[in-house]
Amino acid sequence: MSFILLIPDGVGVRNFLIGNFPRQLRDKGEVYIAHIIPPHLLPTYRAGFSDGTQWEPLLDYKESFLSFILRYALNYAQMFWADTRSMRRGRNRPVKGSWRTKAAHRLAKTIGQMAASPPGIRALDFFHCLEVKRLPEVKHYQRLFKKIRPSVLFCSHQRPPIVLPAVLAAKSLGIPTAVFIFSWDNLTSKGRIAAPFDHYLVWSGSMRQELIRYYPDVPQSRVHIVGTPQFDFYADQKLLWTREEFFRRIQADPSRPLICYSGGDTGTAPEDPAHARILMELIRAGKIKSRPQILVRPAPVDEGNRYDGLRREYPELIYVKPRWAHPESEDWSRVIPLPEDVQFLANLTQYADLNINLASTMTLDFAIHDKPVVNIAFDISDPPPFGVPLWDFFYQFEHYQPVVELKAARFARSPEELAQHINDYLENPALDRENRRRLVELEVDMPLGRSAERMLDVLNKISL
Predict the structure, then answer these.
(1) pTM greater than the 0.85 cutoff
(2) Helix 205-214 and helix 433-443: axis angle, to 10°?
(3) Which CATH number fits domain 233-443: 3.30.565.10, 3.40.50.2000, 3.20.20.70, 3.90.600.10?
(4) What is the pLDDT of residues 340-368, one digit of tens each?
(5) Which residues, other chains included, contact 234 with Cβ-Cβ below 8 Å and sequence gap of 6+?
(6) Which among 57, 94, 123, 274 is placed 20 to 30 Å from 413, CA to CA?
(7) How many other CB atoms sit within 10 Å of the CB of residue 39?
């Protein structure tokens, strides 16, 4: 067999170029990887593959005005038709940029609203692909694929538009295509999947049901449950240090509890530093018992500068920035994880006693380790940043409703509740244990550590 592997962003690097996937993939046959990794980092990831693996940057492609309009019209049509709470927010979000960009979005939004039905979406998709097929990037990939004769094309992430020319080239040559749905919120909170793939690999049965619901043209037989490599690292005991070694590395006291505050990105969690400041003040005031230590870990796409004042004000705070390489541009998809960050996160989720976050996927990371989670659900600013209280905003989104309904986390709707929930969990970490287990079963209903094997079995079955 021979594989085309598309890696269009940093999370694809983490999921498919670090860990077990490279070793198992190279054992199956020849591999060609089209990626967005900067040249100076490429040796870091090439080490996991054989010398015969071919690497080439993914081509940026310049959209025509028509393809730009059709792509955004497709996104708007999906958001108007699916009409989830998160999509309502997305389609009403103000557009930044020049007057031309704003005018183009207004036109695309109007077209999308008019086409917001399965037949309308199919028509937009047809004309969008027809327009993109004319671009030279598609011709480039057609020549390449005729030369290397791949058995299957596999894409690590369904959202980045940069993958569309390669997918269309493969489909024109009869090469099967497959994509991994990256995150638990993507089908209900993002726009349209970027390309018309043949097969879809998902985390769980619930995600499979979501995909079939929001993409009714996809046959159920082409949606494959494989789990997710995102959490496979947690099954690798070789990544773990001792508790003493981990605490030595973060310069903390292993005899005291450790609370991890997981930050979000600046757009979705603009008040993170203020919430972390309240947490630190509650500890200084003695309202949180057991003398816990606080470790703040910003989101990988966050440069972290917004925490500088907090760190000066509270020198006892432990601050650990994720080991992801940031590009010169502001394109979040080009933020690339380093292998050591995967190991650090495996140890952090193993040894932290409790996690605090704002409606983050980190709720799952810590629930997998049976660690209690407190979700921030109170605002600092008045009016709140999103116009409505956090509780009425993030915690009503479809993907996060299972956390609320299963009571897999506790929700702090005031600083006083934050202190109470932390105290309760530190006193009895077994609280809500069964609820956490049920959440993990729902969202990740495959055993950890073997998603690469399951994915490659699917790719083998659908290959030429």
Answers:
(1) yes
(2) 50
(3) 3.40.50.2000
(4) 999 999 999 999 999 999 999 999 999 99
(5) 346, 349, 350, 365, 368, 369, 448
(6) 94
(7) 8
